[in-house]
């Protein structure tokens, strides 16, 4: 979680007072979050503009969202406009009526709502403009999760609930202009994880950036004086026992408050494992390996951290279409007949791809470049003409004899890697570059075959593409490996 900045004051006590008026006492996780989220600068303006919360189901999201929205509607001098967005407009309307209005109407805050023409306190349910109106002119409305959300007004608060259902950033793009002129506007994104990163790209992007920002803040606390995004995540690590009640005590913030162990046990007994892990462990299916094209358990079984590149090897260069990322991978034959695959160099940009970067030669982080690697270790160099062909003249100028890979070899490279992993014919070092690429790699089909799909993947997959191509070209270079491309296509098609 983004830590508290002790140099800033907080108005969290106002939110806690609103919760008290609704009849709720904040749980420790809610109190800690509010203390950070409602830090203010020297001018009394809210510091954080974006709050991202990833948390288990039934952990107190509603008892947080309702006070946050109510506080915004009643605590500002000027009237405020806010919007609540769920997976669908119907879901948002259900929440507005059954939870938001229900709790406010039964609290002392009901007198702040505008009555209808008959004098009754009711939400405005006019189709397309459902909302709660306050006597100070503020309005808390709902909308559908589209790029049109919030248009036509200036928003001080937007809440996106269960955003794992969002397939892209159109909603955020639509909301941003409506909040640009509000100095202390806030956007809350609250959700459990999606079934996979590919199916929930918007949320995963928030998670990835949030995790990275929290780690950077631990190393450099001065980031707290710059970043306007708060990130908090409650999740159970994938390497602990998900079904141990002690794990629930350690990682579920609502256990002992609004959740009981016997309730969690009931869910554990009745739900299938992937869904239980997602809903109550905040674990992504990709990280569990359930959605990997190459089964994670098979991939992990091929790890050999002592394996090394041999004398008979090939190199493959690969870059992303936008030239933002590049990889150099190798495949070599071991004495036991298995093939060693490895990502040797990987980094941003392409300026280092041939001659390396300008770091000292003894720097472990140095990107060496293919000219040095071939000079030092020998081997043949290959590249896919569609992605790396533009570098051919530069490779020649650097004295690197590089060969284009034929289209038919590109077509069978991905299913070949799958085939050889399944049949225990390759080993790798367990590099995070490869496991990360595998966990987020999408595929596309052509005829009866399939390939890695760059454009649909969640992150650069040059590491995965380059080792796949390296394996293919080594097998083609060494006929004794007896690889049948058509068999790879058949195996890939038959693998679930």
Automatic annotation (TrEMBL):
Pfam families: Terminase_6N. InterPro entries: P-loop_NTPase. This is Terminase. The lineage of its organism: Bacteria, Bacillati, Actinomycetota, Actinomycetes, Micrococcales.
